Amino acid sequence: MAKLKKKNNTILIIVIVIAFFIFAQQQGFIGALVSLHSNSGFEDGLTGWTENLHTGSSIALDSTESHSGLNSVKLISDSTGSTTLGSDYISVTPGLPFTIGFWGKGENIVTGANPWDGFQLIGRFYSDTSGNFVENPVGCEECYCEGHCFDVLGFPEGNFDWTYIESSTTAVPSWANYYKIIGVGIHVDGSGTAWIDDVVIEMEVPEGTCGVTDVYYGWPGINQAIQIWVAGG
Prior knowledge:
globular, single chain
């Protein structure tokens, strides 16, 4: 019975995707910027994110504070380990324009001695979902840890209201097929209270392109949710 239900759910998802593509083509959608994470503003809680916690830290939705929408994520951390959210591997297309950034707010933020300490987002391109990547690639802006190339977007120490920071990465490398946010939050020897909202993971796709960027569990009755993007045609 369970197998039949799963099979029916899969068929329903395929039907939804096909129907959406037909509808999108008929409507002539135009718009090249595609959000690659279906819950970048935390309106669906922490769906699609993985928590990284240690003793003395906390991660929680905050409905009293946000850059936009109803929710942000509040993180409290001392200086004994990282308190962050991470993403799954996100499919990208080599050569297409790419943007990674986020909105943050901080109270009593303290950074550590290393470039990877403090309130920041750390992410990286990968060639596959097994963690493989190219070391010391051409155009690498931030190379730490024996030549491993990361996006490192960090805030200064102190107190600050909602502020946006963005990577200098401008396009998906020729060798990359995936991007992953290793952690957005307070890293390693950093400490303080931080809020995160509206994480920007965008790729500019050519008109006439459509696809599925991620599939995750969560729809009541269907038990799977789909993010679909379309860019004109």
